[in-house]
Amino acid sequence: MLIGVALIGEGLKFDIFKGYIYFSMAFSFIVNLIQIYTNAEPKSKENKINHYKILSICVLIQKETPGN
User: Fold this and answer.
1) Residue 62 has what pLDDT?
2) 47-63, pLDDT tens digit by residue?
3) Residue of 42 and 18 predicted with greater confidence
4) What mean pLDDT do residues 35-39 have?
């Protein structure tokens, strides 16, 4: 979407600084890496059990929330 808006802007003769586009793409990439790292499965058995307990509690809370 970002690249599409930039292309439309350039087509309409707007001068768009490429640093803004590259920075936002790099920032998005870093945020995705952090998300992948935090959502990774734990390696020890004890951490794995705690991980699944937290996931099941989140699912239960989501099911009890009105409007879902």
Assistant:
1) 67
2) 666 667 777 776 677 66
3) 18
4) 85
Check the CA dihedral 38-44-48-49 and report its sign.
Answer: negative
| Under 8 Å between Cβ of 41 and 48 | yes
In degrees rounded to 5, what are phi and psi of residue 4? -60, -45
Look at residue 42 in the predicted model and tell me its pLDDT.
59
Handedness of CA 61, 59, 38, 19 (dihedral sign): negative
Q: Where are the domains of the chain?
A: 2-64
Q: How far is CA 68 from CA 24, 46, 57, 60, 63, in A?
A: 32, 32, 16, 12, 7
Hey, what are 10's tokens?
A: 């350039």
Q: How far apart are the first and last CA of the chain?
A: 28
- Picking from 68, 65, 45, the residue whose alpha carbon sits closest to that of residue 57 is 65
